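TEACHING EXERCISE
Course module: macromolecular assemblies
Task: Read the component lines below, then compare them to the predicted structure of the full complex.
Student: A.B.
Group: 4
Components provided:
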Amino acid sequence: MNVGILGGGQLARMLAGAGIPLGLNFTIVDPKADACAGALGRLVTADWEDDAAIEALAGCDRVTCDFENVPAAVLEALGQRTTVHPAARALAAGQDRLVEKRMFESLDIPVPPFAPVSSRPELLEALERIGYPAVLKTRRMGYDGKGQAVLRTVEDLEPAWQALGDHDLILEGFVPFDFECAITVVRSATGALSCYPLSRTVHQDGILRLAMAPAPGTDKLQARAERLGRTLAEHLDYVGCLTLELFAADGRLLANEFAPRVHNSAHWTIEGAQVSQFENHLRAVCGWPLGETAARGRSLMINWIGRMPERERLLACRGLHWHDYGKQARPGRKVGHATLTEADGQSLDTLMAELVPRLDDQSASLLTGLMNDSA
Amino acid sequence: MNVGILGGGQLARMLAGAGIPLGLNFTIVDPKADACAGALGRLVTADWEDDAAIEALAGCDRVTCDFENVPAAVLEALGQRTTVHPAARALAAGQDRLVEKRMFESLDIPVPPFAPVSSRPELLEALERIGYPAVLKTRRMGYDGKGQAVLRTVEDLEPAWQALGDHDLILEGFVPFDFECAITVVRSATGALSCYPLSRTVHQDGILRLAMAPAPGTDKLQARAERLGRTLAEHLDYVGCLTLELFAADGRLLANEFAPRVHNSAHWTIEGAQVSQFENHLRAVCGWPLGETAARGRSLMINWIGRMPERERLLACRGLHWHDYGKQARPGRKVGHATLTEADGQSLDTLMAELVPRLDDQSASLLTGLMNDSA
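Instructor-supplied answer key:
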């Protein structure tokens, strides 16, 4: 069976890594000739709308995406010719933050206060209602903190407007959260659905840095998060993995955004869950039985941002699993990650304490903070 | 860093699967154009001694094997031009059963009685000394029970001689073992060495069918097996993973044979150990720190022989990890395996009991036997 993937980044790379042992072959379409998933499949270098791309993918038994901003029209066209998961409609629902937030509201999924902004007067009006601090975001094409500005005082207003005013925008109330977390849900075409344990996430400058799972102290939140994830997946008649990013505040959960694909907050599942999000996404896309989402002990994932750290220094850490995406170094770019997992006689606390002295200062500080906060 | 592999079967496929996340690229040489490791690297279709093969591999930073019967001369030639692990000498030591057994004896590694056989009179003489039952084996090129005949009575003699008499042979006493097991050792160029937990193995018709690890009830045998494995690896100044196959009889361990490569009895380490044999072999070959060999709970591996079983029936089993080698079906051929691993709240006993009814009769019977025997 041949699976086509729109987008050839690290998510496609890890999908193919999970799928090859399942007996799948991959055809990957990406505009870049050095797309890192090319090591594990046939890479077609083309733009999404390119005829060559459409033809290569239409010949696959199944098609999926590693990227939520694929034009929905491309998926619709492909959907006429082969089986595409997730469907264009599900992708479209996540491509515009305003549409997404309104969908959450309509599903009784709690969200922070928000308002659409398409002019300066609208921004001022929205700020009056929502108050400082707030976050001004582009409605489309934002990821990893791009296309966002935090407004803490009136002085932040002008630079934010200069930077973003050309786009359709949304203003969101800044949630004074206790912590951030994310739930990954996998759903099959038959409606079977499983949820991974909540992952506690730590962002910096809008980029995910750490994920710990199962998120400590979330026994009560887990069932609530599962209900929200299930509501969303069923509403979208979703097939595959999706992740709902959440703020936990005063024992409540507020939805931030969802990603209609495998997600960074669940990379820990490769070694830390019985079946990874990558394998389960493919199982769902192929119409096979879903795999168990149970955790195998506790896990911590740490992202490598900008450039890979010194490999030998880190490979010497017990319990550490290395993921080099094979990408060129570039500031702010996700180039790899590592996951710590427990083994017989090794607790995650011990493994994290051994890891900290081998990290760069920034990562060490974030991890120490998370360890203290979750102890 | 580019790693060359002589041989493109499932072992090379799983080496590459483990190595790509480490940031490695692979060049794979195999005489067959459909070698299954080709999905994960650049496949050079050529005979081992072919100039194209030598050139492709000589350009790699490191070279290793997925096959112990690579001509030692090829490794020697490559060793002049790049770094080759294991070295030609280690490979040669395992290519002739007689040389291997004599090496074991010289290292005080206990072995069953054996004698070289190059003529009918020598066979009769050896049988007189060793007695029935015994196993007549070709000295070279045997694997998966090929090139062997069990002699239980004098009537087995003539057919065995007809089948094997053209080769250099060895007669080995048949060990009335309690069970078979195997220890996998990884050693780095600096002499650092780690051992995986003993794997209890079950063969049928000379082919490995099941492996359970850590082997139950082997607390005392583990240290002894580690000593034997260490002695062998140090004697060979070995770099990479090697596996020593053992008979356990009356609380003693007798060496059967060793494999200078990653080995089927340790496939469970992919999901069942902190770092797999495949990753650790590559870490050793690349000169990186070795990873932890600690188990992550208990595991059971089951080989798929001849053809893959029905995928959907088995993917529905909890705790099951699927490995389809992407090979054509053929009687007696290893085409894939699956590994059961424990997760939070799931014991291996439960998972095995759930698996049995989904297996073919032969596999079900072998697994039930192992479960009863190891309970």
